[in-house]
Amino acid sequence: MKKVLFATTALVLTAGVAAADVAVSGDGRMGVLYDGADWNFSSRVRVAFSLSGQTDGGLDFGGSIRADNSAGGAAGTAGEVWISGAFGKIEMGNVVSAPEALFGDLPGVGYTGNDMDINSNVTVNADIPYLTLDNSTQSAMLYTYNAGAFSVAASMTDDTGQDATYGVAAAYTFGNYTVGLGYEDDGTATQAELAGVATFGNTSVKAYYADASDRTLDTGLEVDSAYGIGVSSVFGATTVKGYVQKIDFSAGSAIDSLTWYGIGADYDLGGGATIAGGIADNDFDGFDPVADLGIKFKF
Amino acid sequence: MKKVLFATTALVLTAGVAAADVAVSGDGRMGVLYDGADWNFSSRVRVAFSLSGQTDGGLDFGGSIRADNSAGGAAGTAGEVWISGAFGKIEMGNVVSAPEALFGDLPGVGYTGNDMDINSNVTVNADIPYLTLDNSTQSAMLYTYNAGAFSVAASMTDDTGQDATYGVAAAYTFGNYTVGLGYEDDGTATQAELAGVATFGNTSVKAYYADASDRTLDTGLEVDSAYGIGVSSVFGATTVKGYVQKIDFSAGSAIDSLTWYGIGADYDLGGGATIAGGIADNDFDGFDPVADLGIKFKF
Amino acid sequence: MKKVLFATTALVLTAGVAAADVAVSGDGRMGVLYDGADWNFSSRVRVAFSLSGQTDGGLDFGGSIRADNSAGGAAGTAGEVWISGAFGKIEMGNVVSAPEALFGDLPGVGYTGNDMDINSNVTVNADIPYLTLDNSTQSAMLYTYNAGAFSVAASMTDDTGQDATYGVAAAYTFGNYTVGLGYEDDGTATQAELAGVATFGNTSVKAYYADASDRTLDTGLEVDSAYGIGVSSVFGATTVKGYVQKIDFSAGSAIDSLTWYGIGADYDLGGGATIAGGIADNDFDGFDPVADLGIKFKF
Fold this sequence. Notes:
Three copies of one chain form a homotrimer.
Chain A lengths: L20 E14 L4 E16 L5 E7 L3 H6 L4 E6 L2 E6 L4 H6 L36 E8 L2 E8 L7 E10 L2 E9 L4 E11 L2 E14 L5 E14 L2 E12 L7 E14 L2 E10 L7 E9 L1
């Protein structure tokens, strides 16, 4: 704490008595990654902070940020801060879009998720190709509200240095089924998404269909629609996961479509350690399969 | 811990058994900011570490650093490290100058402090325009000593890559009044500051006068003198704050003077959450008022 | 935590319930540094995280990273992650080479270690000039195994963007003596190291001899061999340390050899605080001695 004599000072109070809680956790992974040409070592270790508190009136608030992107947290472009109550939950920072908030992504495979960019918008991973908020360069806002089986979400970014974007989504759960609808607008393009989840015993299936308008990838390819399905099945300590996704490009594009898939398995060692391996590929000419095998840790 | 067999090794001991304490806290804020043209979202989340220990002989020592500027902490340009005892307190790192250490700044308004640079040295915020140590690019030193109602402070930076700078300050408290005197030298310019605080019940008033010599801002304007006053009043859960500051420029400058002010209110929600809003403006031609409204959190 | 409705999502789980432990520690230092020309202030403050867990089957795992290099931790180029069991210990990340893992470095002097680069590979510090893994730009792997008095280690980096490198080492302890042998290959050069430690009461002596082939420093000097000795002696709260190292360059080099040394003392104040000072120099023409005096803290 900076020593300050006078009582009216407004110096930043970063190191004062904690009025609420900070939980410290971490994750790590180590293994080998086949990038389509060679097997390479790949590892990482990260620390995360989860902040939480409650007002006298019973509103919950909090935030989260990792050590490695904490500079972004101070700029509003990483992590998030939120407040919630009977009105729902308002989050700001590097939040996901409303559809992603409700539908998430398909089940990722491998200990790294088999990320490998082949162009700036299409990667061979389990991410659903949502339109907005994927690479936020400013603080965005996400609102979510749950009322029993019904959930709604709205997200937006302002027009600071870019077009304003927004997204809305809703989901409804009945028995073992959940269905959802989302819509996104990035100022130029729009995209509607239909998503559904079904759970049968230890197996969960998620599928989506996305219909885009005026959405052009950085490669110049114009997306007409995208769809995909993912499955996750638990057999004791083993979880088997897989997904297939396809983008159909608009008539006249250099290629008609791109299909990519991933399949993998996790084996839970207990205590926060999991052995995980996966393979992913697409049907793009000259793109070779990628694969990984390693251990993931949660601390 | 790196595995090392031999006992005389000098590898860095970063992850050993803690011989003293590390407290983890955090802060966050979310809201909307009017930058003079548009309302925009603005949020951030930060984590801070406060380190403390005591030698066998009873000297206290410690340090503080945030996650987001921790790289600066390792370089000596962010955070600080200190030791204190009957001799006073010696701090090194990104410390403030001696006058700022004793007098602080005027009460900031809004949930962001309404920062908006209009030139590199004058912003419409509650910071008193001290001469030295504001943007330290190297480790600086601050010494403070308290003896009952009397406090003194001295600060300095060495001449590595810049002129050596120093500052001295003293303050005296009698009843509800505190007065202080400071002097700073950045190698080119000097500045003397007179500051006073008066506390009446729940209201606190702080005022300063600064007299500069040879101080030229990056805009080419030469500062003759600066003065300001700030007020903070507590009414139950509400704190109302405001300040006015003015710089008189030397004869022949492009403008005669610059006046800026801010006014705002905080409402304490308890548990570390505060609703805060403020507005700030100056009389510079073409500069529009800035304002913000949001929630601040302490974790 | 991001709010996600559907169960099969694969969003990153960074802020979930900790399945294992994260210990937070820190270090700091403050003092003055003589860089051969001027005395300057020098300070720093750092926070470190040590992660640990255990699988249900009894394998230990963990990792370590500091806040200030946490971005490197997420990229695999700083910190490390490890798993260990009866098979030994496997680490990945910014690990040291196998010889350094077993032999460490000579005892560093001063509160800063008297680092001062005089060229990119030779500094006046206590580091033994190992060949590989000193400035890792990718995740490397280190394997260590202990069986009573016998230890072995192997390290390697893959050929991503550079030549593959590897190192092997072994050490044996008998009574107060330990001897070790290491070998490193960076794809171009190789280096063999012989190291020994002897402990007599409160004094510990470490010596090494390194024989290089085709090893050229960035200055163009070709290393023929290097050798050095370090001593650390404890007298109550005081530890006196010193080292001498010499590199003999190959015939025809611009200079025949370079010798450098350091000597210093630490005084333990208890509670994690240590006063430390040191001086280091070399026989390179025009290089002046460097020295420091300050306080080191462990939190």
